[in-house]
């Protein structure tokens, strides 16, 4: 059974709501490329973890208006989808969900434009939907307009920077991934008028899961096969990203020297040799161990919410992440 089925969440409603946003957009002509590209992207699926988190968050509140929860869940999934358009351009990644990435189909300038348009439209919709809910509006627009971009910028700004500290890595990981997950649970709960402490606990739980998830994603970039990844193993390093396994591996001085010699002009074969060494270094195990610590903390946070029946839903989400993280 999928996570959505276990949690009794109908993901079709999310997809329909997002398609509705696109269809009802008065500025998108019916047969325009933008409209078609956006619809295709939304329909191409994805795990829909973020909307699931919004819905589960709302189950901790006193009064959840189901339609409003679906609307919020859809907006936040839209944010995620829009960010991936830019991410694939920045990462020079040609596939997404086993399909050609948007920029491959439309060319980079059009895809950049579509990503910008979507983000601008989402922020506009938020100001309409939540005009009477200052706190929600403030949290959402800050996150969407600032934190995601900041995370991606921190990543970009540190390309081929092998002196990046682990703290900087964790900060950009928080900005680009964990904050959005935390915000989904937080805002779902806030919309349903949950208590302040509960909202904070859900936020922390989501943040810890998000950190574990991204660290593990960075490990998988080394350990999974090219077939599973849909890109060469070690692509992050080839793109200049010193992710956590690399930062840990650099504590071995001899290996650090070889990693430092890699730059934008290095032939792929030389990258491949170093990638093999990183795979067998303790950097992989140490990064996995940190991911586990975040998971353990998240588990202990469920205990604090045990008086709510929806704590069981958090457990299901936790187990879903655990399967990925094992
Ligand atoms: C995936 O990371 C990317 C993100 C989690 C966020 C990217 C955010 C932006 C590009 C900012 C977008 C902002 C605007 C205004 C459009 P990854 O590359 O590690 O994961 P992947 O393997 O799924 O590509
Ligand atoms: Mg990427």
Automatic annotation (TrEMBL):
Its cofactor is Mg(2+). One of its GO terms (biological process) is isoprenoid biosynthetic process. GO terms for molecular function: metal ion binding; prenyltransferase activity. Keywords: Magnesium, Metal-binding, Transferase. Belongs to the FPP/GGPP synthase family. This is Polyprenyl synthetase family protein. The lineage of its organism: Bacteria, Bacillati, Bacillota, Bacilli, Bacillales.
């Amino acid at each position: 059974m999928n996570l959505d089925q276990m949690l009794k969440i109908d993901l079709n409603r999310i997809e329909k709501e997002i398609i509705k946003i696109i269809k009802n957009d008065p500025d998108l002509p019916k047969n325009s490329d933008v409209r078609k590209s956006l619809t295709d992207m939304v329909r191409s699926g994805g795990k829909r973890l973020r909307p699931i988190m919004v819905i589960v968050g709302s189950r901790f509140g006193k009064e959840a208006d189901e339609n409003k929860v679906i609307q919020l869940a859809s907006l936040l999934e839209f944010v995620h989808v829009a960010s991936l358009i830019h991410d694939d351009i920045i990462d020079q990644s040609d596939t997404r969900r086993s399909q050609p990435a948007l920029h491959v189909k439309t060319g980079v300038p059009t895809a950049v434009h579509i990503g910008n348009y979507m983000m601008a439209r989402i922020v506009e919709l938020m100001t309409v939907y939540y005009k009477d809910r200052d706190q929600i509006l403030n949290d959402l627009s800050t996150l969407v307009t600032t934190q995601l971009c900041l995370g991606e910028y921190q990543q970009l700004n540190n390309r081929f920077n092998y002196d990046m500290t682990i703290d900087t890595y964790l900060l950009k990981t928080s900005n680009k991934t964990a904050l959005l997950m935390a915000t989904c649970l937080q805002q779902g709960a806030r919309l349903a008028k949950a208590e302040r402490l509960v909202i904070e606990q859900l936020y922390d739980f989501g943040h810890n899961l998000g950190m574990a998830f991204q660290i593990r994603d960075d490990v998988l970039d080394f350990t999974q096969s090219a077939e599973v990844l849909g890109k060469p193993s070690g692509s992050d390093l080839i793109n200049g990203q010193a992710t956590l396994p690399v930062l840990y591996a650099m504590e071995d001085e001899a290996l650090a020297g070889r990693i430092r010699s890699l730059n934008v002009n290095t032939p792929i074969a030389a990258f491949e040799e170093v990638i093999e060494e990183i795979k067998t270094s303790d950097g992989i195990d140490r990064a996995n161990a940190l991911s586990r610590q975040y998971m353990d903390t998240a588990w202990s946070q469920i205990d604090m919410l045990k008086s709510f029946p929806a704590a069981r839903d958090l457990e299901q989400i936790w187990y879903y992440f655990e399967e990925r993280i094992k």
